[in-house]
Amino acid sequence: MDSDVLIIGGGVLGTSLSYHLSKKGISSTLFEKEGSLAHHASGKNAGMIRQLYRHPQLTEWAKRSITSWPLSLKSLVFKETGSIVLGRNMPAHHKELFSSGEIHTQEKCTPYVYCKTDGLLDSSGYVQGLKDLANSNYSHFHFGAMVQEISKNSDSWKLRTENGATFEGKWLVNAAGAWVNQIMNPALSRHRISVEAFARFLFLSKGWQEKPPAPHAYGFYWDEKNEWYMRDWSEDCSLISACDTIPADPETYTPDSNIEHSISSRILKAIPDLASNLTLGRGWHCFRTYTDDMLPVWGEDELLPGLFWLAGFGGFGMSTSFGATEDAASYIAGEKVSCCHDFNPSRVKKYEPITRDALISNV
Ligand SMILES: Cc1cc2nc3c(=O)[nH]c(=O)nc-3n(C[C@H](O)[C@H](O)[C@H](O)COP(=O)(O)OP(=O)(O)OC[C@H]3O[C@@H](n4cnc5c(N)ncnc54)[C@H](O)[C@@H]3O)c2cc1C
Fold it and tell me: How many angstroms separate the CA atoms of 175 and 344, rounded?
């Protein structure tokens, strides 16, 4: 065996898992097709660390992430700022984290939820910091290593990279972000998880005369009803999104030339008063991945034992990944983890009804 665990994907999920495994003395080798970590969603997202989710397990993971990040890293990459989510009521779970109220304007009053311990993250710095803190005796990283083929023997997994190198491990973890299904080809082509990718644009902007008024200080403000959000980015600059959700194949997607204009028009329409002096500057996009039920895919594959999925973390992967991968590492270590039944891969499979034996002999 080259490693106990082979991890495909050097985003926040793959890297964080490698960190947690190393703390348990379990060896892992991570493969990233790009030249560095966090090249895609994990380095290009909005970095808003949020704990308000409908599913209590997501809130639990997010809460645990904030409270158990290594302090040396947390102090460098995270700032507790508080957050306001407009258009939401107090959740039925984790009430200790939140307070709620209503914001009144001339025409209407809108409910909001405030979370004091939410904050802002330097996403790329965080992922790199996790790699630096992983025990290098156990965590190995290969960059420019595109995994091209995977196969299963009786009790181990084999993987081949584009340049022909092969590796063997007891476990295989698919943390390939928007590419999770590409890897399953060709060897396991009938075995796919229904995870779809959606592009979303973010813009930097100067020109806020004042931030939207709210009863508490905040670092990000999310208006779920009118579908836009903003976060503090630098002293004189905000990051802003119109919450666009554009179905996109990450391999082939190129934005049409008018897209930035149409998205900025939507922002101006959603918040005409606040945005009248706003100029949208540099913009970029990256891919969020979702299942039909908007919940992540976390767990061991029932048809292919030893294959662990970390996929479909949508717009909440930065917030929840530390807790989610801590539990994944415990599971792989053979410890009892009882948290995540709703996220089981079997619920989102779209495969032809073939027997497990046929599938295994097929790979
Ligand atoms: C616009 C936007 C804003 C967001 N804002 C927030 C936010 O404010 N807060 C929050 O909590 N979350 C946010 N998210 C969500 C968060 O960014 C994602 O959930 C998270 O980054 C997903 O991490 P990942 O490791 O699954 O994927 P990725 O970061 O995409 O990592 C997967 C990696 O796998 C690699 N890979 C793929 N195929 C192969 C292969 N065959 N061989 C080798 N390597 C391969 C890719 O190159 C990639 O680096 C946002 C997402 C987007 C798009």
Answer: 15
pTM for this predicted structure: 0.94
Q: What is the pLDDT of residues 225-234, one digit of tens each?
A: 888 999 999 9
Picking from 281, 220, 270, the residue whose alpha carbon sits closest to that of residue 244 is: 270
For ligand 1, pick from 179, 231, 309 the residue to mutate: most ligand atoms within 8 Å of CB: 179
Tell me, rounded to whole angstroms, the distance of Cα 182 from its chain centroid. Answer: 18
Compute the distance between CA of residue 89 and CA of residue 47 in angstroms, rounded to an integer.
23
Residues forming beta bridges with residue 130, ordered by sequence position:
none
- Ligand 1 centre to CA of 311 (Å) is 9
Peptide bond into 111 cis (omega under 30): no
The Å distance, Cα 249 to ligand 1 centre, comes to 14
Q: pLDDT digits over 313-346, tens only?
A: 999 999 999 999 999 999 999 999 977 789 998 8
Contact predicate 200/243, CB 8 Å: yes
Mutate-to-test residue for ligand 1 from 30, 42, 166, highest number of ligand atoms within 8 A of CB: 42
User: For residue range 263-291, what is the model confidence (pLDDT) as tens digits?
Assistant: 888 887 877 777 777 778 888 999 999 98
Q: pLDDT over 90 for what percent of the chain?
A: 69
β-sheet bridge partners, residue 341: none
* Of 264, 288, 322, 257, residue with least CA distance to 51: 322
What phi and psi values does residue 282 have, to the nearest 5 degrees? Answer: -55, 135
